[in-house]
Automatic annotation (TrEMBL), chain B:
Entry annotated with the keyword RNA-binding: no
Binding site for Fe cation: Y221, Y222
Domain of life, source organism: Bacteria
The keyword Nucleus is annotated on this UniProt entry: no
An example Gene Ontology molecular-function term: metal ion binding
A GO term from the CC aspect: outer membrane-bounded periplasmic space
Residue ranges the record marks as coiled coil: none
InterPro entries recorded: Ferric-bd (IPR026045), SBP (IPR006059)
Protein name: Fe(3+) ABC transporter substrate-binding protein
The organism of origin for this protein: Leucothrix pacifica
Amino acid sequence: MHNGLIGIRSWWVVLIGLLMALPVLVVLGFVLQPFNQNWQHLYDNLLGEYISNSLILMLGVTVGVLSMGIITAWLTSTCEFPGRRLLSWSLLLPLAIPAYIIAYTYTGVLDFAGPVQSQLREWFGWRYGQYWFPEIRSIGGAVAMLSLVLYPYVYMMARAAFLEQSVSVLEASRTLGNTPFQGFMRVALPLARPAIITGLSLALMETLADYGTVQYFGVTTFTTGIFRTWYGLDDSVSAAQLASLLLSFVAILILLERYSRRKARFHSTSNKEQRGQRYTLKGWPAFWATLSCSLPVIFGFLIPASQLLYWTLTTAQHTFTSDFVVLTTNSVMLAAIAAVVAVCFALLLSYAKRLLGTPMVKGSVAVASMGYAVPGTVIAVGVMLPLAWIDHTIDQWLTEYFGISSGLLLSGTLFALIFAYTVRFLSVSIQAVDAGLGKIKPSMDDAGRSLGLSPFGVLRKIHLPIMKGTVLTALLLVFVDVLKELPATLILRPFNFNTLAVRAYEMASDERLADAGAPSLMIVMAGIIPVILLSKAIAKARPRGAAE
Amino acid sequence: MKLLKVALFSGLMLSMAPSYAADQEEVNLYSARKEQLIKPLLDKFTEQTNIKVNLVTGSADALLKRLSLEGDKSLADLLITTDAGRLYRAKSVDVLQSVDSEVLNKAVPEHLRDPESYWFGLSVRARPIFYVKGKVVPSELSTYEALDDEKWAGRVCIRSSGNIYNQSLVASLIAANGAEKTEAWAEGFVKNFAQPPKGGDRDQIKAAAAGICDIAVANTYYYGGMLTSGDQDQIDAANKVAIFWPNQEDRGTHVNVSGIGMTKAAKNVDQAKQLMEFLVNAESQAWYAEVNSEFPVLEGAKWGDLMKEWGEFKADQLNLSVLGENNADAVKLMDRAGWR
């Protein structure tokens, strides 16, 4: 009997999955349109460069986020050293800084005309061309900027994984003669792989979708190419086709990773998950541990935040206007609603995937998840197209039968905006929730069902309490992402409605960087508060001795 | 799944959020001009006419896409862009309507508006050459065309070709000299770049001031913005360069406009027309000049003090629709020439 029940519900799940996948499908659908003469031009002159630059960027960011994320996660979760408590949550802070903002701040600091180089020239009497200084506005600079703000994804996921690893596994490795380092390389790291890959794939998808940073640094990537084709050549079809090509990259990456994991499962079979003691580091090792965990915070947060603060202070009189409160409220409200909505859908879809696992459900969830790798503006168009179609259809129908014109019901409303956020950031929440659900043994579900719980009862009474930390993480990630989100907000928002990100963008794109300081700083601050609150809550929600 | 219900419910509530005041007159505006560069004028308009102006800002292309998807149901009455090419595009995708206004026709010179009155320029933006005082004497400079000369090798700063102002500049060169000649010019010009294009217009002026290059191409209002920024570094940088108005002996310096058009879907036609006319009156025109160092389209409108210092110049009289027509060709040409 309960199979029938699942049958009815699965319909809904497929429907919701498809709805979430719709904007991505709309973009992909453009591939079916004939390729026009602009493709020859792109192919002859640009495509090679787009592909190679995007690959270099991805490779560089992979190295950057993995090295920063894994080392800091391992140190803060298994070692004791001065400043560990403070650092273990401050390492999340760079997440609150939008990539394009960190790019602006570092350009301000490190550019030829900036204070660092000017000071060096003054001290040593150098002139242009007489000394070497790393060029911040280059592909290397873009890799550095993106790595600095994206490593927290890896850090967060890896740390959760390290903390949840059963100490008995590591102990077993020690009794088999492994040193702590070997234990890390041979046991802890491979076990944490799914979590690390999840963090990495989020970082890479965001890298691919980034427009602000690469555009400002003059690095031509797929994303800049998409906009160039759309805006410069006035060819939105070719632009969408480029975006589809980008998506196929992402799809290949995801498939490769899935294939390499194949049948491996990562839930622990033991229930003894108590933590052992942290290795207490002393002397030089402690110094190096503190240093290597401080550097990402200093470069990813303290320096850019100080620059923003400096800009804010120099422009305070005319940037802190009365509407600043409204901007902040709008940003926080949107971010909070979108976070709740996205995580609800993520729970539903993720659980449905676990429960049903039909190709239809899996497929639509996979497609919906790719939204994260698509530049926000493109996703926004993917959202607008179906909404406009619905609006026009309803209007036509009402006019025909009742003589009433309903106008635009959905387009240009906050509903459209929330829908776009949900689609765009669903991937973030699904990845987090998937990781959490993956760790719960299927036997738990069976036990719950055999004791008379409905499928949703299992989710509510068993899964949710176990993975409270994961759910909070997902909420936090979406919240911060929406706070920072710009392109979809810009194109979809209703009349007279602004957010902090919009204000920061308007100032920055008018090349008034200093005036962009105040709204940017506000984004960072609004992002920090939940980061701190939630990192405490997440720590508390962790089972047993793992609590911080 | 209470949470889900709450979420869905609040979503529904949100979709009903926009409320329309029934009795107050309104006009709805999509603007690619940044809020800070249009809102004060709109407030003044509301004060004078008691017509409320609702505003969405954003990039011109995104607003245009939104407008065309919303079609005849769009709430927007007006579209403001910061370049003529986008207005041309808006006209060609059929989202604008022709406006017959004596006031607008009189205030806006013919080459700064659409021949069929689908759009009108509001303010003029000039894109001259800036040279570093002491390193370059003005007599070394003459035209945009001459910037491909080998003597400028490694001495030129200009931003990426992804930028609309560069696309428009090259579009105007295509109009003047033809595509073939312009492509050959672009190849030579790109060879003279001091560094790969990056950053915005202000960054080019800063780079010139810092010694990376000797001349830079940038819009005047960015230069004005630097001089009035209150940031001593920017002021110092701007003071190291001076304006050279190119092509004074022939067609004149390249200019573009920020402009306005009425949407085909406009419901508040009268109010929209009033706002259009308001934006070209003497007071509004002087405001662009004062606040953002943009040149008025209205003959005789007051210039800002800064602009008076820069002096009169001869502007290219090319009808700006041509910039839109040539835009895609300009982009492809720059791609082939390696202008990134």
